[in-house]
Amino acid sequence: MYLYKIDSNLVLVKRGGNINWLVYIIEASDHSYYTGITTDVERRFEQHCSGPLGAKFFNGRTPLKIVYREDGHTRSSASKREIEIKKLTRLQKQALLASHAGD
User: Fold this and answer.
1) Of 66, 48, 47, nearest to 58 (Cα)?
2) What Cα–Cα distance (Å) separates residue 61 from each residue in 32, 64, 71?
3) What domains lie within the chain, and their CATH numbers?
């Protein structure tokens, strides 16, 4: 067993344990997209809305809504997918969102 940091919380996890991580995209007030990873997207959205625990990206912007979420990742695979999504152009991100509309 070992301690694992999830956002600002420490959690005790068995070695080889699988935590369900998510990749998410939030639309901001300026219509830009923020991509991140977490184990609890609703909690993380509230942190982004409330200030000090939110991402610096939202300084001067307001998070409007979660527009995309991808479940079933390990911490490692979520990080890799986050990087993939962050490398997409705005048009490619919009196509990704459109292809998962209604999910």
Assistant:
1) 48
2) 9, 9, 26
3) 18-99 (3.40.1440.10)
Residue with tokens 């990873």: 37
- Length of the chain as a residue count: 103
The token duo for 99 is 């292809």
Q: Which two tokens stand for residue 72?
A: 């079933």
Task: Please give the Cα distance from 25 to 46 (Å, whole number).
Answer: 14
How confident is the model over 28-87, as pLDDT tens digits? 999 999 999 999 999 999 999 997 888 999 999 999 999 999 998 999 999 999 999 999
Give pTM, 2 decimals. 0.81
Phi, psi of 70 (to 5 degrees): -130, 110
List alpha helices for 1-103, DSSP H.
41-50, 75-86, 90-99
Dist. CA 52–CA 54, nearest whole Å: 6
d(CA 12, CA 2): 6
